Amino acid sequence: MIKLLPILLPLIYGYIVYRFSVRNTLKELDEKSTELVDPAFQPVLTRLAAALGLARVTVYLYEIEPVNGLAAPDGRIFITRGFYNKFRSGEVSAEELASVIAHELGHVALGHSRRRMIDFSGQNAMRMALGAIFSRFVPVIGVWLANFATTLLAARLSRADEYEADEYAAALMTKAGFGVAPQIALFHKLETLTGAVAGRPPAWLLSHPKTKERIAAIRALESRWAKA
């Protein structure tokens, strides 16, 4: 049993971190969010809902300034106040904002939002376990190697999720009659909207694929669908 402790402790720690993270995330969202109700935006939500065969699509307004959209572990979809303000000011069209919601709906439908919380705790557990193992062989840089390996794996998984959610959004936007043009148009605006400085994207975009690669993937999908 004692020999198994180096493995069991990170797993136990990972589970505790997972439960703590989910609880804190949901609490934060509950305290700082309200349902988005805007007659000017409702028609695009109605079309997304119809394409999904749902009575309605509910979106919540998260009262923070950074431009972002997110899917909570419980399946709720959020748009930040900063993003919504871009729509209100005319910098983002209703259809472009709808593509963000379609993307987040993809994360929910594909199980990404819940898995990401599990991945977060799993990464911490793996980081601890690898750190303990590597440190036995390379004491000075063992922890650094563990952090690097874990971060690299997490980034790769996150980018794969983004491509999948992009594809889901493209299909949903097409079915709703919007096509992929709003999705591509928004990608072209992302760096400006999110406040990139000197060509450097904000921190939350670092785990996403490069914008040009995402656009190319969507255009390839559109071309394949046109030939089908």
Structure overview:
This protein is an alpha+beta fold. Helix content is 67%, strand content 6%. The chain contains eight helices and four strands. It has a four-stranded mixed β-sheet. A hairpin with a 5-residue loop joins strand 3 and strand 4 (77-80). Helix 1 (5-32) runs antiparallel to helix 5 and helix 6 (142-175) packs parallel to helix 8. The longest helix has 34 residues, at 142-175. The radius of gyration is 20 Å and the shape is globular.
Topology readout:
Elements: H1 5-32, E1 33-35, H2 42-52, E2 59-62, E3 69-71, E4 77-80, H3 81-88, H4 94-109, H5 112-137, H6 142-175, H7 181-193, H8 211-227
Parallel strand pairs: 2-4
Antiparallel strand pairs: 1-2, 3-4
Helix pairs in contact: 1-5, 4-6, 4-7, 5-6, 6-8, 7-8
* Helix content range: 55-70%
Number of strands: 4
Count of helical regions: 8
The largest sheet is:
4 strands, mixed
- Amount of beta strand: 5-15%
User: Structural class given helices, strands, pairing?
Assistant: alpha+beta
* Contiguous runs where pLDDT drops below 50 for at least 5 residues: 118-122, 197-207
Gyration radius over CA? 20 Å
What is the approximate shape?
globular
Provide the residue-averaged pLDDT. Answer: 78
